[in-house]
Amino acid sequence: MEKRKQPKPGGEPDPWPEFARIASEGARALGVFLGEEPIRLLALHARELLIWNARLNLTAVADPQEMAALHYADSLAPAPWLRHGAAVLDLGAGGGFPGVPLAVARPDISMTLLDSARKKTSFLAHTAALMGLKNVRAVQARAEEAVLKGLGGQDAVVSRAVADLALLWRLAEPLLVPGGALWAMKGPRAREEAEELARASGPGIARVEFLPYALPEREETRFLVVVEKAG
Fold this sequence. Notes:
The protein has 231 residues and is α/β, with parallel strands linked by helices. The chain has helices spanning 16-29, 36-56, 64-75, 99-105, 118-131, 165-172, 190-200; strands at residues 87-91, 110-115, 136-140, 154-160, 176-186, 205-214, 221-229. The longest helix has 21 residues, at 36-56. The protein is globular.
């Protein structure tokens, strides 16, 4: 039975209980079990995102229920697969996806949120402090400058809705330790992009793997594409 939305005092339904339900169910479908506190933190991030969005254009999706599926659940796809205590870098973090939800779901990992826009990293630093995320730092730099900024040695680089795989790999490979991997959330063109990557890349790739998944209340199949750096 479909859950009823609780009305606000003015008669409009409160979207945040549905945000919590969709985010929680989406996470569970991926093998990630979020308690009450992690869901509260994701909702806190979402509220701040909407407040800052008017100035920074952080997201084109402004409905909390849509955000729960398209941003938060989607961002959690790599969560079950990252090794315990991994050093992870979010390449082109923007409003914090996928890095912030991953850091909430996996407090054992160390998350670096990298973005070239200072206003966006200011938002990320502010929100991480507000959420009390001790495992998160925001760094303002172009991806091409990240190694010079001392951001090499990552176990994983994660990215969502930033660029095609060939470009992502070119940016991610110098940041990864041997055996580390790029984890990219992709749509229907995932395999086509992987073929382009194979044509453009050198011998530095150990394997490419596709892990299909679905978002709550969506029909489109998504793919978590894993590109592992050769040892």
